[in-house]
Amino acid sequence: MSGRLSDRWWLANSWEPAVFGLLAVAPLIIPEFAGGLGGQFTTVMILGVAALGLNVMVGFTGLLHLGIAAFLGIGGMTLAILTVPTNPLEIGFLPAVLASVGVTAAVGLFLGAPTLRLRGDYLAVVTLVFGEVVRALLCNLEQITGGMQGLGPVPPPGAGVIVGGVDLGRSFIVDARWFYYLALAVLGAVVLLLRGIERSALGRAWIAVREDALAAATLGISVTRVRLSAFAIAAAIAGLAGSLSVASLGTTGDPNAFGFNRSVAILCAVILGGLGSIPGTLVGVAILFGFDIVVIPWADGWLQQLQPPTWRTEPLSLGSWRLALVGVALIVMMRFRPEGLVPSRRLAAELHEARQ
Description:
The chain has a domain at 16-260. It has 16 helices and two strands. The chain has helices spanning 2-13, 16-29, 36-60, 68-83, 93-112, 120-140, 142-145, 168-174, 176-199, 201-211, 213-218, 223-249, 260-273, 278-306, 322-336, 345-355; strands at residues 162-163, 166-167. Strands 1-2 form a two-stranded antiparallel sheet.
């Protein structure tokens, strides 16, 4: 009964359902979503899924993870290996996604088991090295991963399936809205999943371990199991994001895209929005990656149109300044609002007490 009341309270008092509703309606009234704009929003939502996975580690459990992009690469590569026509396996999209989630969860456990006693900088170094090892393997195992060229073409969801005279695979290729709605549905499902876990005994155990592992252990909480569950769930969600990313692009692409820079960018989005906060993570991703992927290309095109054609100088470009702009924004945020834009109440209170 209390769970139902909690769900009703969330639906009535959270802005997330309204935002998801707006995102669901937008492609129906804005034609550009069928093309490049839809692809840009799809990329942002997929990165939102990955950021939610990282928030399980950094926000809920308090474990600094600098290799989350490696799990995107593992999940995407698993999907590609299982679906590309050049490989003998060539299973369907949904079984391949489930396999990607299972493989990344297993790798997460493999990474978490020997690092359970590490905290802070030591864990950060281990996860950073793990991410670079995965990136190097993806680059050099050319017979399996395709090396720097990647694997492809990756068949779209529904390839070869015809429903009501509609070829689903072709629809995913010619109309970006199909992938857009798939990414939106997955993002919504992950949000609901993490909302449920956050209110469960496991979610409360994550927070207890984050605040004081020794005190949690004295209360009968298995710190080892709690941290391993965080490693596995975070990796599984990131693997899901990676499989969607590869499917939407149709290729695994350059493995360097799953390196340290991408991990740090996702971590910055989580910090910007608010550690331990699901809506905060979504806000951080919307601001950081939405600015980089959606706003900057639009602004650069607009500035180029404003520039007189007689000018012989290079056109004005925000793209070359985006890292500086993001850096300044993060510095200002850490100075004046270190808890993030939409922090969890508990973590905001902890930071407030620490400053006092």
